[in-house]
Amino acid sequence: MSDIPDRKNMLWEGSRMFLPEHREALLKQRRRAEEFTPPELDESQLEYMNYILREALEEEKPVLVTYAAKYSREQFCGFVDKVDPYSRVIRLSNGDCKKQIPFAKLLHVEWP
Q: Using alpha carbons only, what angle is made at residue 79 by residues 75 and 81, rounded to the nearest 5 degrees?
């Protein structure tokens, strides 16, 4: 036997490195994996949200809107200022805080 220990790849373990381009690509891939993909809504859910938004707009009641953000679901509670079918957004306000949410990002609308 030899007196030299079997180091396998230990000699090069400490000097491992990534090129900056590879590191950025790896980080982008991890961020993409963490992104939230909203589920598809069926017709009955869309009709229910339409009903709640119409009632809230006519009666000036607050609503709790759940929408898809980049990495998770988020909620906003406020009054419906406008539902714009042409630009396909809902404008909500809660005091000084205002929010514009696209139709495609809506997940759920309910009374608070």
A: 115
Q: What is the pLDDT of residues 20-67, one digit of tens each?
A: 888 898 888 988 888 888 889 899 999 999 999 999 999 999 999 999
Evaluate whether 63 touches 78 at the Cβ level (below 8 Å). yes
At 97 the three-state DSSP class reads strand
Phi/psi at 55 (5° precision) = -65, -45
Architecture of domain 43-110: Roll (2.30)
Domain extent listing, the chain: 43-110
Rounded to 5°, the CA angle 101-64-44 comes to 80
